């Protein structure tokens, strides 16, 4: 049997008219988007077809949009009799997509959580300015040392995406200063990430408290396919442990590089990105051991399908 892992993307993969090649003919996509629209109280299909981009990029709308897109692609995979992966994992928000697709979390419950998660995240920026930067080609230890200089936790390592790419986030001025320090210490390249929220930083702790109280009333079951979480790089089966990881995930580092290493340690070298873009696929490009596919459009989906099944 062919072994592979499914990877679900987080915020930042959205764009106007995404999934258009699927939506033209595949009823399952329309049905899932209609179900999401009913649950959320606004027309999600209209939003991804027409925008405006500002609205799609607002976390309150971005997060349910990406979740719905990933779930729709997964359900289409199942409808085509695609085989199950050995593992699932989601980058940040993508963890919710993985939990839905592994039958641990109800789709409508996940929609409600991520909609509020996005709303609370967006609220954080009302009184302050924040910045998110990607640091390319600098050692993790050096970046951590630079971030630790900011004693009030105003700069954090948000995500370790690969050996070569680390994301920092936090207070705008301090992140900018930290990025200059990274340059000084030999970072090859630094660029802004299109987010104005201090994602996965200690500044997000107030949001994690709100997520904790929402999750109290949500039922989570044992995943039918193991889901590797972001904070511990572990597959949890217990409902309380899954919830704790989702709460911590809001302000803790996404350990993506370790997740990919964990999958490889199980002798799995094929990755399938289940979402409307190919960001996670691109992160794997430098890893010569990995074969990576994406499902960003119908052509890519069926290419992946033929290779894996």
From TrEMBL:
> Where does this protein act, in terms of pathway?
Lipid metabolism; fatty acid biosynthesis
Q: Which GO terms describe its cellular component?
A: cytosol
Its Enzyme Commission number(s) read 2.3.1.39
Show where the Malonyl-CoA:ACP transacylase (MAT) domain sits: 7-300
- Catalytic reaction equation(s): holo-[ACP] + malonyl-CoA = malonyl-[ACP] + CoA
Q: Which UniProt keywords apply?
A: Acyltransferase, Transferase
> Which Gene Ontology MF annotations are present?
[acyl-carrier-protein] S-malonyltransferase activity
InterPro entries documented for this protein: Ac_transferase_dom_sf, Acyl_transferase_dom, Acyl_Trfase/lysoPLipase, Mal-CoA-ACP_Trans/PKS_FabD, Malonyl_CoA-ACP_transAc, Malonyl_CoA-ACP_transAc_FabD, Malonyl_transacylase_ACP-bd
> Could you provide one GO biological process annotation from this protein's UniProt record?
fatty acid biosynthetic process
Presence of the UniProt keyword Acyltransferase in the record: yes
Query: Which sites are catalytic?
Result: 92, 200
- Which domain of life does this protein belong to? Bacteria
Q: Which family does it belong to?
A: Belongs to the fabD family.
**Name the record gives this protein:** Malonyl CoA-acyl carrier protein transacylase
Native source organism of the sequence = Buchnera aphidicola
Name the gene for this chain: fabD
């Amino acid at each position: 049997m062919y072994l592979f892992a499914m990877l679900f993307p987080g915020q930042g993969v959205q764009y106007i008219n995404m999934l258009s090649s699927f939506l033209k003919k595949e009823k399952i996509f329309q049905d899932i988007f209609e179900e999401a629209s009913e649950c959320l109280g606004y027309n999600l299909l209209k939003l991804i077809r027409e925008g405006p981009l500002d609205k799609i990029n607002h976390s309150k709308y971005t997060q349910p949009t990406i979740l719905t897109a990933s779930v729709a692609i997964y359900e289409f995979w199942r409808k085509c009799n695609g085989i199950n992966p050995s593992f699932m994992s989601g980058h940040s928000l993508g963890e919710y997509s993985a939990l839905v697709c592994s039958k641990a979390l109800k789709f409508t419950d996940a929609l409600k959580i991520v909609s509020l998660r996005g709303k609370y995240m967006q609220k954080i920026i009302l009184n302050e300015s924040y910045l998110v930067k990607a640091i390319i080609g600098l050692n993790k230890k050096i970046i951590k040392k630079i971030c630790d200089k900011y004693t009030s936790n105003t700069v954090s390592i948000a995500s370790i995406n690969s050996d070569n790419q680390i994301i920092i986030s936090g207070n705008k001025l301090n992140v900018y200063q930290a990025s200059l320090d990274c340059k000084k210490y030999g970072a090859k390249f630094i660029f802004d990430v299109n987010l104005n929220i201090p994602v996965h930083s200690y500044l997000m702790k107030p949001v994690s408290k709100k997520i904790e109280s929402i999750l109290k009333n949500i039922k989570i079951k044992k995943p039918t396919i193991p889901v590797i979480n972001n904070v511990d790089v572990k597959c949890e089966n217990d409902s309380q442990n899954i919830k704790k990881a989702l709460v911590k995930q809001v302000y803790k580092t996404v350990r993506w590089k370790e997740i990919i290493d964990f999958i490889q340690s199980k002798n799995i070298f094929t990755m399938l990105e289940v979402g409307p873009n190919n960001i996670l696929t691109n992160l794997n490009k430098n890893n010569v051991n990995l074969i990576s596919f994406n499902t960003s459009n119908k052509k890519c989906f069926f290419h992946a399908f033929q290779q894996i099944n």
